[in-house]
């Protein structure tokens, strides 16, 4: 059992797993972050804005590239589709128009997958982008909800809970208006359940954004 | 005419906004209107099931071929469904030669997710002999003409082709232990759920249904909702892009539910006319 | 004698055709909106789709491109569900690479490539259902697509296959006849001038028989020319009627 810490008091909702984050731990990339959520752990390196290949150059904005490296083996179709989601989320948030004709590369390495991987990747990416100092119009976070057979919502499910769940929904939520940036579902659910999950995710997002703020505060108050 | 064409090339965003101000789109549709959908099934006789779907100009052909395989070790009573979306060079000049691009791979994964989520066909139904023999359905979707909204067209082609599949009866010869196929006795698949997709683009906080390729390029985000016949959600797919409120998402869902009815009516009519023949 | 009788005593083939008879041809031009030219063609049960882009600026490496004429870029692919046995790779295998090369050679002979130096013409052919004569269907479909795109050519390119069995030359072989393994000839002809764009013979054939087989293929190509010409004229009439209003 992982140690669970009650991070917000929203009545009957179970809490998120323990979160740990370290920024700027790698020296070569322009920004980096390690994100641990329960037993799930990912590492992100951000390179950019830097020179872009002529064939990928976009004349009025930055070219994003996301590489998701699985723990073992080579990236496949599954990784490609996750890369696309993370890429399009970043494109919506990072002010790419400030860096036209340049590239921003995001490399995500999965260290351990113990559930809620996509949301962990999103959170790690956001922290990495902050560390790289790229201008963004808001922060974003990823929240995964699992719906069990009775329709109960488990936030931030572990691998076992994810497997037993009837549906697993992952959302990316922005910090400015708490709107949905990205959504991905596995399994089927009713419309009401979807709305409940969105509401729960939005509440959980507050906790994560508070965590972002606390960690940034702690980092910069050291000096 | 020539001036409008020039304006369209130089200022595509402004050109499009002028249309939206009048509540219509460059191709004459309203914001919530789908393009004309036509479906044709069973045109490829070498496939076990096939369908051609035209959504406006977007054309997707889906061919399903069934082959034998050994069931997976961890679930010996299941068969396989392997979807693949191909965007060949001929469908648009925007694609480059080489291995499948990001969009094709993302679409393949989306199809695989929806098949898994919706349980459109129970994989147990594809098992022939427990632990020994099962069907594997290779569902290849080829885009022949690319004009946006690939996912809806693929989903529709896949479902129509699946309804068209006829699997031969298979018996195991006791003496030799080999499978014998009886091509005269063919049965259709049991289809448990009927997932139908509806895609939207986000443009200046407007929701626009069934985008063309041109509209997709201008949009700041896309949403695809897949519902089954009970109105349950099989997928809410929003790969990033600009933000959306829960209420707006609700709008998408209710539009997707009506779209499901339209497509189901179309497919039912088609199957009926096919049977009558 | 093998189980199948490919040619009956009365001179009929398996599908009921006579020796020199073609399979039914159905074709449509301008099937797709965003391509510069497109055509769909059925020869019996063989179904082919051809799409043409260009002439447009050169893509990819400029090194290998000829500088005084257009580069003809062909890709031949077969849908995975087009054959009885599922194909693993739609294109990129050796057979399709050879076919792509044959198409390129055929159309380099027919297109007026010197009119478009430093540019590229793409011809993409997709076989949706294969029942023999894939190369021929691909060439005929591509001809219609090129005409639809309005790219100048010396002449139509008509292609047809021919085989030789029991002292008889057979035109337009289907899959069963092809698979029987007899001699098989593919001919791509520019019919007006009677110029041969491509000629390929598989399996052994006595040279005394070659003129007869070639003759059968030439005849078949001439017939195809008439059929394709009718398709083009009808398409033009329809297009003109639309413009007229």
What can you tell me about this protein's structure?
The complex is a heterotrimer of chains A (223), B (277) and C (245). Chain A has a single domain, classed as GHMP Kinase, N-terminal domain (Ribosomal Protein S5, domain 2, 2-Layer Sandwich). Chain A is built from four helices and nine strands. Chain A has helices at 77-93, 117-132, 159-164, 191-221; strands spanning 19-23, 31-37, 40-50, 63-69, 103-112, 140-147, 153-155, 167-174, 180-186. The longest helix of chain A is centred in the last third of the chain and has 31 residues, at 191-221. Chain B has one domain (35-276): GHMP Kinase, N-terminal domain (Ribosomal Protein S5, domain 2, 2-Layer Sandwich). In chain B, 32% of the residues lie in helices and 32% in strands. Chain C has one domain: Ribosomal Protein S5, domain 2, CATH 3.30.230.70. Chain C has a five-stranded mixed sheet with strand order 1-2-3-5-4. Chain C has a four-stranded antiparallel sheet with strand order 7-6-8-9, sandwiched between helices. Chain C starts with 24 loop residues before the first strand and ends with a helix. Chains in contact: A-B, B-C. At the A-B interface, helix 1, strand 8, strand 9 and helix 4 of A face helix 3, strand 12 and helix 6 of B.
CATH architecture of chain A: 2-Layer Sandwich
What would you call the structural class of chain B? Answer: alpha+beta
CATH class (first level) name of chain A = Alpha Beta
The two chains with the largest interface, and their residue counts, are: A-B, 36 and 36 residues
Number of helices of chain A: 4
- Chain oligomer state: heterotrimer
- Alpha-carbon distance between the two ends of chain B: 47 Å
- Percentage of residues in strands of chain B: 25-35%
Shape of chain B, please? elongated
Structural class of the helix and strand makeup of chain A?
A: alpha+beta
H-E string of chain A: EEEEHEHEEHEEH
Radius of gyration of chain A: 17 Å
Report the uncertain regions of chain B: none
Query: Would you count the extended β strands of chain A for me?
Result: 9
Distance between the termini of chain A: 36 Å
Q: How does the SSE layout of this entry go?
A:
The complex is a heterotrimer of chains A (223), B (277) and C (245).
Chain A: E1 19-23, E2 31-37, E3 40-50, E4 63-69, H1 77-93, E5 103-112, H2 117-132, E6 140-147, E7 153-155, H3 159-164, E8 167-174, E9 180-186, H4 191-221
Parallel strand pairs in A: 4-5
Antiparallel strand pairs in A: 1-2, 2-3, 3-5, 6-7, 6-8, 8-9
Chain B: H1 2-10, H2 12-21, E1 37-41, E2 49-55, E3 58-69, E4 80-86, H3 102-118, E5 127-129, E6 133-145, H4 150-164, E7 166-172, E8 179-188, E9 196-203, E10 206-209, H5 213-218, E11 221-227, E12 233-237, H6 246-276
Parallel strand pairs in B: 4-6
Antiparallel strand pairs in B: 1-2, 2-3, 3-6, 5-6, 7-8, 9-10, 9-11, 11-12
Helix pairs in contact in B: 1-2
Chain C: E1 25-29, E2 37-43, E3 46-57, E4 71-78, H1 94-110, E5 119-129, H2 134-149, E6 158-165, E7 168-171, H3 175-179, E8 184-190, E9 195-202, H4 210-244
Parallel strand pairs in C: 4-5
Antiparallel strand pairs in C: 1-2, 2-3, 3-5, 6-7, 6-8, 8-9
